[in-house]
Amino acid sequence: YALLLSRLGRRGEAEAQLRQALARRALDPVLLTELGRLYFMDGRYPEAASLLSGVVALPGANSEAKYYLARTRLVQRGVFPLGPTTLVGGDLLSARLAEIGLKPFSA
Question: pTM of the prediction?
């Protein structure tokens, strides 16, 4: 549910849901990665870097955690001065699709 809320742009609610899930599964790399991604998307780069650094040190760390840690560090260093995403077509969905190499769909 938290992932859906996040994708809908309701990141505050998503964070609350993720924290509830993490209370039960504190070392779940998928949940921790998603929380780190939320921090990144909200421009909370120090928190994202700290959390994602811990996630990539866990056994079974996923490539998404490594990806968002790298992006966070690049933004912190000023390599991506626009922040978490470059908007394509003016919306976050289009930006995320472009980010993973897909073209935005049209109605």
Answer: 0.71
